[in-house]
Recover the amino acids of this structure.
């Protein structure tokens, strides 16, 4: 944990502000938006002029959330007392809002990503927390704020999305205890679950099925590759983003150590790769001019899908057999 | 709740037995097996001759569990002091083991399915519990038993599988509190998650893809039905249990309120049904002599797959249009 302020003091500062502008990171996910929404709602309930400032629309799949105070209007508050970045702690995570962030009389940072460390006048960064929403929950407790079903729902979205709904390894006993407390606030648990996890479009389901049909297993069952091209998208009325989770489906197959997924896009192909236990897909991606992390990497190749598949299969086979 | 015994008294009876035979339901799922395994392990730790009696092999996907005391040998205990049925409360849920169950000096029943009500000499049936594993957890607390990582893992599997890993509407504050307590026991959370959710067999993935390919959407996009038959299983080298999660895939499609999935088994078909928001599939299942919960129910029909699909589609359409 890196901090130069306690949650009690941070809460005291926020409660005594007249205006607070909240900055989730770009392409906000459930945790960035849920954490920001919960904080904003509580501040407004306390008569504070609070807004969540974005640089894009709320993503379609998160529009069910409490987001009426989300705005892209950088002049929504004239000279904010406090600017607080939430679920991010680097300027490059809110590139289009840096000037307005720096215009705050006081800059506060609340995050669970341990990246650049200290940031702003006051910062509270705890990498042991599964979600920033867990920190916001503790901040609200420290403020003595009322967590109603609306605030609780936003926090639950944050915790659920950042833990893969309690499936990822960051899930702790604390995560479940907070979830238990939030359920007691009368949040619409089922509404949230359905909105987040039980509403895949028919096109997406049909597309994923086609991707599995076209999947090749190779290197003695240790690798899988599949692809999506424009003809497939057209056939089921899907968009390229509907293929987003296909790579996980491939990796999650028993025995698969490395999975590759190829997306035809304009006149190139984008390759995503995943490793399960010990593989390092960044080492494979780098051979094609790409990069990434050990377990998730990618590259772009300027050739036809079938040529890319052949090359990728060869490289993965070499890697697994060495 | 229907009970004629407290958990304290049930625990006292179990602790004072010399031999206990445990009966999960046929085709045991994670909750039936997890609840049985946790109870069996604790009884053995207390020097009691305890076994879990099955009428089939442990399903492949649950073989990672603590199941060395699972047996199909009906003579494993001669005249058991207590026979306890777990996660089931009707003879038809353990049809091949009824005689040996009735040979117990005392018959005990612990379940969270409110079906036939009272059953056995002593019964504790609580339909408000998300999983029988939650009741077993409370029983073990009442017994003052030590819940180690092994016992905790079995209970976690039961709770996770019966709540869709905290996603279904049966998930309560209590569910999360118990999960938090179990995580504190040092269970291998990630190992369980990978085993249950990130290691689908190739046959299962291929089968699910075929099931989606054969899916019909009807009643103005509010219902989905699909099926699995022996030809499909043969084609991809899958077993019937590989179709276990297909019903969720159907229900999770945007706009779908009711999903039905039909499994050809011997000369009958087994129908599983799920509702998403407001539907009550138990009301539909009961018309075909089945039953279950509001959001998850099923029935058995003695006819061909295509005939069953036609009947089910008609009944669901009537239900959705009324």
């Amino acid at each position: 944990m890196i901090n130069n302020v306690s949650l009690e003091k941070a809460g005291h500062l926020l409660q005594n502000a007249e205006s607070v502008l909240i900055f989730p990171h770009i392409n906000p996910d459930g945790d960035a938006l849920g954490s920001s929404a919960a904080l904003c709602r509580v501040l407004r309930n306390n008569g504070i002029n609070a807004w969540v400032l974005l640089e894009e629309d709320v993503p379609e799949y998160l529009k069910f959330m409490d987001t009426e105070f989300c705005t892209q209007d950088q002049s929504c508050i004239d000279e904010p007392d406090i600017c607080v970045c939430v679920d991010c702690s680097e300027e490059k995570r809110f590139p289009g809002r840096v000037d307005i962030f720096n215009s705050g009389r006081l800059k506060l940072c609340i995050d669970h990503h341990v990246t650049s460390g200290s940031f702003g006048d006051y910062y509270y960064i705890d990498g042991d927390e599964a979600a920033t929403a867990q920190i916001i929950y503790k901040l609200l407790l420290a403020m003595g704020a009322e967590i109603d079903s609306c605030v609780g729902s936003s926090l639950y979205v944050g915790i659920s999305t950042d833990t893969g709904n309690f499936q990822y390894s960051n899930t702790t006993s604390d995560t479940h205890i907070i979830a238990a407390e939030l359920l007691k606030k009368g949040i619409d648990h089922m509404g949230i679950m359905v909105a987040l996890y039980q509403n895949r479009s028919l096109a997406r389901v049909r597309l994923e099925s086609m991707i599995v049909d076209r999947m090749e297993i190779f290197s003695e069952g240790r690798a899988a590759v599949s692809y999506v091209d424009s003809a497939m998208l057209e056939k089921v009325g899907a968009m390229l983003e509907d293929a987003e989770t296909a790579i996980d489906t491939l990796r999650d197959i028993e025995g698969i150590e490395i999975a590759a997924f190829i997306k035809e896009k304009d006149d190139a192909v984008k390759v995503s790769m995943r490793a399960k236990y010990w593989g390092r897909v960044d080492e494979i991606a780098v051979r094609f001019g790409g990069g990434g992390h050990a377990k998730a990497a990618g590259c772009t190749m300027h050739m036809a899908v079938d040529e890319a598949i052949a090359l990728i299969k060869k490289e993965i086979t070499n890697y697994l057999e060495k």
About this structure: Chain A has a mean pLDDT of 95.
